[in-house]
Amino acid sequence: MTSSTELTAPAGTSGSSPVVRSPLRSWLAVVAVAVGTFSVVTTEMLPVGLLTSIGNALHVSAGTAGLAMTVPGLIAALAAPLLTATVGRFDRRLVLCGLMGLLAVANLLSALAPGFTVLLSARVLVGVSIGGVWSIAGGLAVRLVPERSAGHATTLIFSGIAVASVLGVPIGTLIGDLVHWRVAFAAMAVLSLAVAAAMAVTLPPLPATGTVRLREVPGLFRNVRLRIGLITTLLLVTGHFGAYTYVRPVLEDVAGVGTGLISTLLLAYGVAGIAGNFLAGTTAHREPRRTLVVIFALLAAAELLVPVAGATTAGAAVLLVVWGLAYGGVSVTCQTWVLHAAPDAREAASALYVGVFNVAISLGALLGGRAADGIAVRGVMWFGGGLAVLALANVALFGRRGTAGPPAGRGPHQAAASGGHVRPGGPGDQVRP
């Protein structure tokens, strides 16, 4: 089938026949998916810590090197909905394993790239992998664990994003500083293959069951709650990556941080991000709007203060920790908002979310690069903080519109599992809180 997007099957089922799985094996599958999200996000973010090294080695400016972030984001935005339709009724376990294999190839090609053009070609493959993995993994928890544990499993899956910041990017930066930036990409190629093997062993069969036509996906924009969530995501993530992509040049230029300390500061950022992911995960499923208001306020403050209070290493370190703590909760909270807004079209809504998120990544990296090259490196912080303020205003002013949950009488996971279809933006979606 090439013209439809599938809804996920109930937890513990394969097609129409129940599958009995031990709790240990179910949670090992969740961990495998979490390591998969860690791998794709680490690969996507790796140029952040290696930007200077890549630019110097391949003879391009910092702004041009930032295209290594822009390209995979744009490709992922296109790949998410297209792959969701193209894979049709293929077992999602096989699709995930194939995407991780593609990620390994992309990382190996990046490690061997003789010039910047080849590197960008490899980053195209990275974008395909990101779009596919994110669109499937985002709503997969309900199929791997009992419904009562799906919220915790979703938080764990998205912890891979925060762990990518605390381990992936800093370790990749450290490898680049101590050995060579190419070795960092080679290491990710090995990890991607290992994750593909782990998924093949731990994931149960994940065939598609219910369907919703791909041409109906744009109709999801009629869902007020979903539309607000997507606009908010676009603003916040564009601003974040407009600033974060160039955080290394900012630390070097504004705070005078030495090369050897960059990886340590990024490590502190990542540790805070992991804490933020789990802190947000405890409240996001109950109060997504309030959680986002707190997150956005902290992000705006941290980014806007870097040019002012980040002129010293200590000041920059404190602001990076606050930044990491806040951004660590963005993915799980925004994804939760999206799944609550469209409980009967979870995979389609996730594909839209992935598309918007990755457009925002590439747009942020592109606009941040223009600000860094055309104005000043520290200008990326004003850009990022300004969009964070707009995201905060959007969710604070309009976030109460629509509904925060599924139609009455149906839990979000039951609705997703039923294979039924509620017209996006219909009466069931427009209940005042």
TrEMBL record:
UniProt cross-references to InterPro entries, sorted A to Z: MFS, MFS_dom, MFS_Efflux_Transporters, MFS_trans_sf
Lineage of source species: Bacteria, Bacillati, Actinomycetota, Actinomycetes, Kitasatosporales
Residue runs in coiled coils: none
Protein name listed in UniProt: MFS transporter
Domain Major facilitator superfamily (MFS) profile: residue ranges: 29-403
Topology class, membrane: Multi-pass membrane protein
Transmembrane region(s): 27-51, 57-82, 94-116, 122-144, 156-175, 181-203, 224-247, 259-280, 292-310, 316-339, 351-369, 375-397
Location within or outside the cell: Cell membrane
Gly residues bias: start-end ranges: 422-433
Keywords linked to the UniProt accession: Cell membrane, Membrane, Transmembrane, Transmembrane helix
